[in-house]
# Entry
Amino acid sequence: MNELLEILSELHPDVDFEAEENLVGDKILDSLDIVSLISEIDDKFDVTIPPEEIIPENFNSAKALYALICRLDEE
# Structure
């Protein structure tokens, strides 16, 4: 989780990603941020996020995104 928080903090150092629960809905993360995140996650965690998983629910919080990474890593 710490590696993911580092990636997120590089995108927006002013956001408390551990507490924020509506990153997409509150427009903290935009489409370009999500594309960058997907690339960074692929590099750092060796996990490919398929297009059908690129939905707001999976990117609205660090916890949700980490859960997605863990689930994809197990598959």
In short: The chain has one domain: 2-12+20-74. The CA atoms of residues 31 and 68 lie 18 Å apart.
